[in-house]
Fold each of these.
Amino acid sequence: MKNTRYLLLASAMGLLLSSAHALPPAQDRVYTADQNSNTVSVFNPATNMLVGQIRLGNARPDVLSPLYKGQINVHGLGFSPDHKTLLVISNGSNAVSFIDTATNKVKGTTYVGRSPHEGFFSADGKEVWVVVRGEDYVSVIDPVSFKETRRIQTGLGPGMVQFHPDGKLAFVISSFTAAVDVVDVKSHEVIRKIPVVSPFSPFLQFTPDGREVWMTHKDVGKVTRIDTKTLEVFNVFDTGFITNHIAFAKVGGKVLAYVSIGGENVVKVYTTDKNAELLTTIPTGALPHGIWASDDSSRVYVGLENGDGVEVIDAASNKVIAHMGGGQAPQALVYLSHVVESGDGSANLLPRGNGEPGNIRLQSVKGDARGFVVLRNLGVVDALEVSLFKLKPATTYSVYVNGQSSVSGVFRTDAKGAVNGTMIGPVRELAASDGKNAGTINHIVVMEGSAPADKANAVLVD
């Protein structure tokens, strides 16, 4: 009898453990907006595998022809309350694509003003609001006719909009203005402007109870928290270099915040107490960006902008448990439950059209400079994407690859001492010049001005 009791207890514990680590339902999907390949990657969280891709355009650089008709820079994602429609924002072609999640087909496209960034359905599903970041307004679209019905004036460069769960207020953050516009949804009027610490805020998210808005400040590495009743900022805390997106998950009875820190290749987990405290740091692949939790909070999914895929975090252990290869340079990521009505959900999806990228983190020789490089194959040619930070403002820098005597790329920093650029060409041939590691890059040297490559006097090296 005693042994039987122990066996029953062990069996029950095993069932509890299995339940805690159970995979999400096979009817659910994870989506990423892939900026470089101009695809939407569709993943099955039950198998931790890519189902296929929705191709909205050609991969870079094949987007420059005057006859090109596809979308460019597939970047933002939103969805309808019933999860039947996925909203996709392509900021290079000013497009808002409406995708049927059951068929993976585009059912409508709306073109708005210059460089939209993100969009979302209203809480009642009757309107779609898209922030037009290259201008100063929110475009309101009818999701049935796919026509723009009005514009809501905001501060310069609105970056994202989200609706409070009760449907009464919308919060619009900015990429160029250090303020949040609070909009009355019924009147479509801005009723409050909330000052914040930085003008560059790419993402906001509500806590599950709707009492707070959390927003990221990518340029200064901070998160701001706003009380949705008082409409006041009550907490600002440091997070890290290139703070991107936020997700919330309920773990062990407590709501935790998961923040993707692109410049550190980590996801940081914080409490949601009055003063947020860092609980743990989870190492990830290259440049974590979009992030979203499963409905049951068992998993947190993070897109790797320079890793071309998604990593799966087990919320109970706070460890990465799977990697799913996807499109090039994923930006936004969302998790939608109960979208597959029948079959395996692969209708109208195409296989992955790209391979794995190569990543190199650059080290400062002197000073506080930072940088990283990613090498992607584009078929006939390759792309070497260089991102440099904390250099001298408005200054030219030269990049040398694999000991070449001639400059491989020349870049000029902006007013903040940062630059992002891409070199297109037969990079693999150059990288294979040593005859040993074809297709790899072994040495990168960044010099100020046009000085010849010299590791001892370089600004950044691999």
Amino acid sequence: MNARLKDFNLNLDIRQVPDAITCIFHSLLLHRSTAKFHYKTETNFQLGSLGIKEVECEFIDLCYVRVNSDELAMRVDEDVRAFHQEVERNAKGRNNPVQTQISMEFFHRRRKSSWLPLIASEGEENVPWERWNVNLVVNVRPHDELSSLRESAAEAVSDIILSLCSCINKPQYLPKMPTKKEIADVFDEQFSDVQPYLFTIIRNKGPSSQTSGTLSTMKKLMKDTLFI
């Protein structure tokens, strides 16, 4: 199985990073979450209810919809806040833009298998099946320029959300619905009110080299930024 990989590119002011990343990641989780499973038998289950909530961005002229789960929102906010702090540290004292990346990866767990038939396998491994990279060029603008950037950032993020929705709804691999015994191998059960597919947020690993055109696009973003 080949994991699906998708890259998005954004040019933002440092203050707009949390809004943009949170909007994109919650839009992904809206498509990659279910209500809690209530099993009647090992394979027969019912789903609870799943609400949604509209959130207004602070530094971008945009509202987005997320799963109405404060627990899930706190989990995402922790990673995004840590990423933002890393970017701020890297940008401090620099005159040129910061180039970085943050990703959301979905995976399932499976038992490790040994190629030696007489050796029993031990432990589990996480197998990615979908990864979404956000490649960023981050600038530190004067405060009085931020108002003029709010609309352009909103348009860029909106384009990503539309592309995301179009791509995510196409026929593709999804882990099969698990039995009661297998549910922790597919879904994250730590939340009391929602059940997303297992996911991780990967911070600050640099631009992706796995998708053709990404590096050239990032270079163009850097060039455009320097000549604004």
